[in-house]
From TrEMBL:
CDD domains: LMO_FMN. Its cofactor is FMN. It comes from Actinoallomurus vinaceus. Residues 11-371 form the FMN hydroxy acid dehydrogenase domain. This is Lactate 2-monooxygenase. PANTHER family: FMN-DEPENDENT ALPHA-HYDROXY ACID DEHYDROGENASE PB1A11.03, S -2-HYDROXY-ACID OXIDASE-RELATED. Pfam families: FMN_dh. Keywords: Oxidoreductase. Belongs to the FMN-dependent alpha-hydroxy acid dehydrogenase family.
Amino acid sequence: FEIYLNGLNDVLPSLPADLTRLEALAREKLPPEAYDYIAGSAGTGDTAVANREAFRRRRIVPRMLRGVTGGDLSTRVLGAELPAPLLLGPVGVLRIAHPEGELAVARAARSLGLPMVLSTAASHSMEEVAEVAGPRWYQLYWPGDRDLAVSFLERAAAAGYTALVVTLDTFTLAWRPGDLDNAYLPFLRGVGIQNYLADPVFTAEAGEDPIAHWAGVFGNPGLTWDDLAFLREHWDGPIALKGIQQSDDARRAVDAGMDGIVVSNHGGRQVDGAVASLDALPIVAHAVGDQIEVLFDSGVRTGADVVKALALGAKAVLLGRPYVYGLALDGEEGVRHVLRCLLAELELTLRLSGHDGVAALSSESLFEQPT
Ligand code: FNR
């Protein structure tokens, strides 16, 4: 109602309520190479498109006369009480979208009590972000240098990051034609290596050329399931594995003593032609049941999308590109706009479809259209 009441005084919102329109607006504002890096996907973009199509194929089936007076969005994920089943997913190099980058995102997330998952590839160090952030989790790109990995974990714990999200699908960057055509990689220009530059182990080893050293330690393609025991030894809080798309992998995460998984294909940025993340979700969720907490990302653009992901077994969703477009357009305020729109639409969609809170959602809340 706030928006409608403002309208009585001819005050209109500066950003659209339809979040799918933000991308085109951000494109007008951002330098082309920054836009392409953020919006881009792997290969032909097939998987990024499939992520959206998987949402369109599923329809919410509204139920009536169910006394929907509550509409409680709160939930508990990896030991944290969340006001809504929504987190700001880890996105690196945010300074290419806005000078305040991760700091603006952290402030917006804090104002709504939503956790921010800070990327290893952030363009502000985890300590700087912690100073302005509310609830915070740390995303690890596990470097091919164990001392450095341990140092990252110790710093994250000391700076108040409560849960660890280990991203498995990006031990090297994928074939991304947009970035190749622009010959643009932010890291090689010194953006997104700020967690490395602030690290005593890294600086001791890097010597004169930190960017070359980063390129040498960033990837870790030799990792296997056995290595997870090492992480457990060095991180006391909950751990979630991000990038799971398959049920055996999900079961292995349970066997490895992990606390959560994020069903994700990195927004279609890694394996072009990969299964749509929303199609993988119900299969994976069914395979693990209640043995591990299942989170989801890739393709979430609306409150209705959140409803669909929760109905298919996700406990919460992570948002990617939409909040980055909000950041590009209006800094902290733009991110808050995106989050508030999404939360309001989620709450309305839930209640209008007859669900008195997120716990009332199930696969019966959806209809899958035949292809
Ligand atoms: C990402 N993502 C990502 N993931 C991660 O674990 N660490 C990271 O540093 C990044 N960096 C990153 C940069 C940019 C520009 C984008 C768009 C994405 C992936 C991100 O966490 C998430 O999986 C996807 O963005 C989800 O898909 P949507 O919501 O963008 O469709």
